[in-house]
Write a structure and sequence with these properties.
The protein is mainly beta. The chain has one domain (25-150): Jelly Rolls. Helix content is 13%, strand content 41%. The chain has one helix and 13 strands; from the N terminus they run αβββββββββββββ. Strands 4, 5, 6, 8, 9, 10 and 12 form a seven-stranded antiparallel beta sheet that branches. The protein has a six-stranded antiparallel beta sheet with strand order 1-2-11-7-13-3, with no helix packed on it. β4 and β5 form a beta hairpin. The longest helix has 19 residues, at 3-21. The chain is globular, with a radius of gyration of 17 Å.
Length: 151
């Protein structure tokens, strides 16, 4: 490959990688309700109810690392991750359903350790006799340690 071809290939690869490294807002394209996802900083005091922190564990049935689920009343939902590396890893929010396959709530979001994400408009996932949505975070990365949840 000549120098010009290498330059064009390098520019194409850089263009494909750069969007993953930037904070982003995305709208989930799922079968469920439309959910807006926004990368944010730490939670502001008094604005969120802390639901606790859950460690990631390997789910052989799901083929991914995941946390135990937490119950949400809908509205907005925030998650902050802690990992063994500050390299951005891909995470997916899912809604647990004991009677059917778990649903993807949003697109894959790339977060580094200490980053947080807010999911807005998740009330459509509230169901069941407890009138709650049961959410958990999942990843393919073994570097994920825990996720903290706010509702």
């Amino acid at each position: 490959m000549n120098g010009k071809g290498k330059l064009l290939l390098g520019a194409a690869l850089a263009a494909a990688v750069v969007p993953l490294a930037l904070p982003a807002t995305a709208v989930a394209d799922t079968a469920g309700p439309t959910v807006t996802v926004t990368d944010v900083g730490p939670a502001a005091p008094g604005e969120w109810d802390y639901l606790g922190s859950r460690n990631f564990w390997w789910s052989s049935a799901g083929g991914h690392y995941r946390t135990d689920h937490v119950n949400s009343g809908g509205g907005d939902f925030q998650i902050c991750v802690a990992a063994s590396s500050n390299t951005r890893q891909g995470y997916v929010l899912r809604e647990y359903d004991p009677d059917s396959a778990d649903e993807y709530v949003g697109p894959t979001i790339f977060l580094a350790s200490g980053d947080c994400v807010v999911y807005r408009g998740i009330g459509g996932y509230v169901d069941g006799t407890n009138n709650r949505a049961e959410f958990y975070f999942s990843t393919l990365s073994s570097l994920a340690n825990s996720a903290s949840y706010w509702d």
